[in-house]
Amino acid sequence: MLQALKSVRHLQSIAMKHAVSELCVPVPWGELRGKVWGPDHGRPVLCLHGWADNCGTFNSLIPLLPKECRYVAVDLAGHGLSSHRSPGVFYSFPAYVMDVRRVVDALQWSKFSIIGHSMGGNVAGMFSSLYPEMVDAVVLLDSYGFFPTDKKEMLKVMRQGMDQMVQFEKMTEDKKRRVYTYENAVERLMAANPTLSERSVHILLERGLVQVEGGVMFTRDLRINLKNITRISLEQSLELQSGIQASVLVILAEDGFEKMFSEPEQKKFTSAILQAYRDRNHAVVTVPGDHHVHLNDPKAVAPLVSDFLQTKVLTQPARQTAEQTSKL
């Protein structure tokens, strides 16, 4: 056990060497945590991780991106080191969007870019459509920006989510707070995410575990596993997408979502969303790799992201004063 905890600390020291500081934003139920890279007055870029991950997902990528930017990667509520939502509360995309609004308000950012992986990309898409004047560029890493649900399935999904919450609230604390050795936690995360490299697993566990008596526990809130009861249709997704004013770069992984959502009904939704990006002159590219290619093999996506930020952000005049870029 002692050796396992030493491994956690050693990995933390390696991955944190590029980080400028730790982020902490007070919220009504606790705090949202994160990490910050780059100069104080660099062009602001918000980085949003995927479901069940944490902001460590950007540890490998950000050091390869333009140094002129200020990167703030956030642990979304219920993930990483951020507080869990209050008892009885669901996790939903609108709630995550509200969390982003709280973070950028605390940072005093009036104009910024977003890099979002998977679920984080969906949060980025919704935020960019609700607050188009605040976002100048969006990078979607193996994400479509929106995740539509067939209208015929919505009631069933909502009911499933509510029933799952009822059952969750009946669980004993022992079942909610399972203790592992560090080695068993590694095995569990690798089994649940077979596309993650072992190195990537260790990176995610830096913020994904907490030391407790007898071992370690996963920090994420088990309620994130419940069905998301807030759904939107394809038509609603396309309407929201049409409100985005930012430049968008969609980077899909060959063995990522395009492979996972390959059924005809699923392809109907994803193809419509991707074509709508193309019709608005946004970029859609595919790279070799899997769903976590940005973490497993960051060099496969870093040149694309860097060129996009250079072209769409860094060559454009800043829209806010240095005093507005960050309070950190």
How would you describe the overall organization of this protein?
One of its GO terms (molecular function) is hydrolase activity. The chain is 40% helix and 20% strand. It is an alpha/beta fold and 328 residues long. It has a domain at 16-152 and 233-318: Alpha/Beta hydrolase fold, catalytic domain (Rossmann fold), CATH 3.40.50.1820. The protein has an 8-stranded mixed sheet, sandwiched between helices. A two-stranded antiparallel ribbon has the order 7-8. Helix 6 (182-192) packs across helix 7 and helix 8 (234-241) packs parallel to helix 10 (264-279).
The strand order across the widest sheet is: 1-2-4-3-5-6-9-10
Radius of gyration: 19 Å
- Do you know the CATH topology of the domain at 16-152 and 233-318? Rossmann fold
Roughly what is the average pLDDT, rounded to an integer? Answer: 92
The assigned structural class equals: alpha/beta
What's the SSE pattern? HEEEEHEHEHHHHEEHEHHEHHH
Please tally the β strands and state the result: 10
Q: Helical stretch count?
A: 13
Assigned CATH class of the domain at 16-152 and 233-318: Alpha Beta
Q: Could you tell me how far the N terminus lies from the C terminus, measured between alpha carbons in angstroms?
A: 36 Å
| Morphology | globular
CATH superfamily annotation of the domain at 16-152 and 233-318: Alpha/Beta hydrolase fold, catalytic domain
Instruction: Report helical residue fraction.
Output: 25-40%
Low-confidence stretches: 1-17, 321-326
CATH architectural name of the domain at 16-152 and 233-318: 3-Layer(aba) Sandwich
Instruction: Tell me what portion of residues adopts beta-strand conformation.
Output: 15-25%
What summary fits the major beta sheet? Answer: 8 strands, mixed
